[in-house]
Every structure is written in structure tokens, then in C-alpha cells.
Write a structure and sequence with these properties.
Length: 342
């Protein structure tokens, strides 16, 4: 298995998708099976019976236990074997590994590392998600055929929207506006302001801005796999750059990335906004985000294909790469720290 940060909370799947049925998932090159207990708690186990390595996701749920579909060995929600058909003695090593889980922001989060370090209070949370003055809309689980750090590069990079997302998130007014970046505790922050310029199509459509605006992008990348993009717009000259946000349209585009393996990741995305909207408007806004993220998917998969085809090719670095480079160093440091502790 290639190096991943393990002692961290990863998003695994939408809570809405986990019920009283076994479901198989892959994360950091490991396979897990999920289900809910009768009391509603999410259980995550290694998706392999220790007898013949039969995937437990192909078995049956019996109460709160999984019965292996090959020989009927049954494991309770702690991973302990509680039944072996045809014998009463249960070997001490008849145990399946389980993983800590937690639910927040509509997602099931999983801890793939040392379970004694799994502090559920450290699961990522965005306060506005719970604020009744804001509204949150769940999006999709977008599978992308690329390494998750390539997606992370994209989510540390405001500059690409001026060229990739001209129908939704960007316009030419920002092409030459500098990008700023700094490393904070466990994260990389990237930002820029575009002052006295036309609104991007998304805000022109839903914010009904008629004249020029002041707009901002703050990309918060929480290593190793969470990106929160705070972007908004206010009529130019009304004080937004100085901190006045009572007359603006503001959206948090949230990206929670599941690293599947070296060639795949899943982007669980949702948006949180400072206004209420009808179901029709929410659906239309989600459709516009879906369009934009499909554009990212096409680019990232094309890049990944060329990386696989030209593994020895070294790419050049330019000024806008500073945030992605800082992000990758931060992830490398986390991996190195875990290796050193081990």
C-alpha cells in the first residue's frame, strides 16, 4: 500500500446511503463493509472473513451481526466471532478488524489508523452548516479517475476558475489577479479578491447583481482531504473587503475527499449558503455546481492519464503552484510523522 495519512478522519460515504444492508467501500486501498445496527449506529469492519478472506459484504446481516456467505461464521459489531456452524470452540484469532466511525454534516467519517487516537471531537465541522440562518444542500459523490492529491491541487488553486469554469464560477476579470497563500495549523489557506469587476455567472444568476462587484475566494484546505471554499460577492464599494458582509451573497462549497487508491478518489460535495431558497433554486444551483465539477473531473482524469503514460516526465512550476506545493509538503509531513511514531 502506498503511503497515506491514517490517523485522521476521512469521509467515506453519505449517511443517507447507510442502512440495514451491507455495503462495500474502499478507502486508502483497504476494503470495508458498512451497516447500521438496529439502534442506528454505523459499524465499519474489514471486508474479509479471517477464515478464507471471503468478503463479508457478500454475507447476510443477522440482527447486528454479519454472517459470512461462505461457511456461516458470524461476527458481532465488535468484530468478534460469535458462531461457527458445526463446532462450539471459537479460535481466539477469529476476529475481524473494526474501525471507529462518526456522522457529521451528512457524512459517515471513518478512522483507518490507530483506534486509540480516534477523537470524535476532531471530526471536521462547519458551523454554518448547522446555523438556521444558512441553508445546506447535499450534492453528489463524484468519482474521479485520479489520485486524490491531484484533486487537492485543484482545490488549492483559485486561478483555474478563470479558464475552466467560465459558465459558472469564473470570468476573465480574474485572470491576472495575484493569488495569496499561507500555511496555518494543519491547513493551507489560499485567497484573492477581485475588486470592481463583473460578477461571475453563478452570482449574476442567483444574486441578481447588475453592476460591478467586489468578490472573494478563500480556499481552506485541511490536510489531508478536506477543502472548504468560501466565495462571495457584494456590490462594489459597499465594504466587503473591509469585513462588511451583511449585504453580500456568500457560499461555502465543501469538498470531502475519499482517497480510494492511487488511481481513484471520490469527491463528496455540498454547498452551504447565506440565504434560503426554494427546492427548485437549490436544484438549479446544484446542477450548476455539477457542471463545474464535471469540468474539473475531465481535466484531472486527462492529467492522470498523461502522468501514467509519462511517469518520468518532470513538470515545471510557476507562481500559482505555491499552494498545491505547500499542501503536498503538509501531507508528506503528516505521513512522515506517522511513520516516525510507528
Amino acid at each position: 500500500m502506498s503511503p497515506y495519512v491514517l490517523n485522521t478522519w476521512y469521509p467515506l460515504t453519505w449517511s443517507r446511503n447507510v442502512g440495514r444492508a451491507l455495503s462495500a467501500h474502499q478507502i486508502v486501498e483497504q476494503r470495508v463493509v458498512l451497516y447500521r445496527t438496529e439502534a442506528g449506529q454505523v459499524v465499519a469492519m474489514e471486508d474479509a472473513c479471517p477464515h478464507r478472506l471471503m468478503p463479508l459484504s457478500m454475507g447476510k446481516l443477522k440482527g447486528d451481526a454479519i454472517e459470512c456467505g461462505y461457511h456461516g461464521m458470524t461476527y458481532d459489531c465488535t468484530g468478534a466471532c460469535v458462531r461457527i456452524p458445526g463446532q462450539t470452540q471459537i479460535p481466539g484469532n477469529a476476529v475481524v478488524r473494526t474501525y471507529p466511525t462518526h456522522e457529521n454534516m451528512g457524512l459517515v467519517w471513518i478512522w483507518m489508523g490507530d483506534p486509540t487516537l480516534a477523537d470524535r471531537s476532531k471530526v471536521f465541522d462547519l458551523p454554518q452548516y448547522h446555523d438556521p440562518a444558512w441553508s445546506a444542500v447535499e450534492g453528489d459523490a463524484l468519482e474521479i479517475g485520479a489520485h486524490y492529491l491531484n484533486l487537492a491541487d485543484n482545490l488549492c488553486d483559485p486561478s483555474h476558475v478563470s479558464f475552466v469554469h467560465l459558465s459558472t464560477l469564473g470570468n476573465a476579470a480574474s485572470e491576472d489577479v495575484p493569488v495569496h497563500s499561507e500555511v496555518q495549523e494543519g491547513k493551507v489557506l489560499t485567497w484573492r479578491w477581485i475588486i470592481d469587476a463583473p460578477p461571475i455567472p453563478l452570482f449574476a444568476k442567483y444574486g441578481h447583481f447588475k453592476g460591478n462587484v467586489d468578490r472573494w475566494h478563500y480556499y481552506h484546505y485541511h490536510a489531508p482531504s478536506i477543502a472548504i471554499i468560501d466565495f462571495g460577492t457584494a456590490d462594489t464599494g459597499t465594504g466587503a473587503p473591509e469585513g462588511r458582509r451583511d449585504n453580500c451573497m456568500q457560499i461555502y462549497a465543501c469538498h470531502f475527499i475519499t482517497p480510494v487508491d492511487q488511481n481513484r478518489c471520490i469527491d463528496h460535495w455540498l454547498h452551504v449558503k447565506n440565504f434560503q431558497a426554494s427546492p427548485e433554486v437549490n436544484a438549479a444551483l446544484s446542477a450548476d455546481f455539477r457542471t463545474a465539477f464535471a469540468e474539473d473531473k475531465a481535466i484531472l482524469e486527462a492529467i492522470h492519464a498523461n502522468e501514467q503514460r509519462m511517469p518520468e516526465r518532470r513538470t515545471i512550476k510557476i507562481a500559482i503552484d505555491i499552494s498545491p506545493r505547500r499542501m503536498r509538503r503538509l501531507v508528506d509531513d503528516m505521513v512522515g510523522s506517522e511513520a516516525g511514531a510507528a
